[in-house]
Amino acid sequence: MLRYPANILTxxxxxxxxxxxxxxxxxxxTLLKAGVPTECIGFLSxxxxxxxxxxxxxxxxDLEKLIGQPPVSLKQIMEAIYTPTx
Length: 86
What we know:
The chain has one domain. By secondary structure, it is an all-alpha fold. Helix 2 runs antiparallel to helix 3.
């Protein structure tokens, strides 16, 4: 899932952007070094693992029904940010 934004950035910038998924241990140590409270680290690690396992991947149309129009895609947002204006 997180490789997708990296691929979009590569396409838009012409520079190779890669995503590296750290091990759970490296992730935990990085959070500790950043000063994240220990009581939050378990939650964040679990959440990150769920993302890695595509637990949140969905193709439902609920958002479109709620807002009455198709949502803006990640690629469209990134194009607006990273495409030079003329």
